[in-house]
Specification:
Elements (H helix, E strand, L loop, with lengths): L2 H12 L12 E6 L4 E5 L12 H11 L6 E7 L14 H14 L4 E5 L4 E5 H4 L11
Parallel strand pairs: 3-4
Antiparallel strand pairs: 1-2, 1-3, 4-5
Helix pairs in contact: 2-3
The chain binds tetrahydrodeoxyuridine (THU).
The site of tetrahydrodeoxyuridine has 13 residues, from helix 2.
Amino acid sequence: MSNADLIAAAREAAEHAYAPYSDYQVGAALLFEDGSIITGSNVENASYGLALCAETVAVSRAFGEGRRGGLTTIAVVGPEDKGDGAPITPCGRCRQVLNELAQLGGTDPLVLCVGKTQVREVALSALLPHAFGPAHLD
Ligand code: THU
């Protein structure tokens, strides 16, 4: 599974986004140690503040399928025609949600933040330093 394949999966997921209010379609793809991929796209609501981000949807799907770790790589793709083309980065809440799944399995996933002409590769631990996680509750 190449980074390009994972980004393609995130891009495809973005096509299923339900984002009629922001018109900002996001797709996320999670790669696991066993080679499997779980995707998600953002889901908005007429009550605007209830929107679910693509990353959060993907993580909840992963938990729902019994995953409790093994997360190695994350790709996030936004619309190409919005903003200045800079790579999209997961929002603060999504960083925390991703961290839960990562820390459970003891991995520090690489996040592929996709922009118009550039993919920024950054460790989740760099996006969320000194993270609060499940180990704090042991
Ligand atoms: N969004 C995501 O899905 N992921 C992010 O990391 C940033 C924002 C969504 C939420 C909302 O539906 C739309 O993008 C605009 O904020």
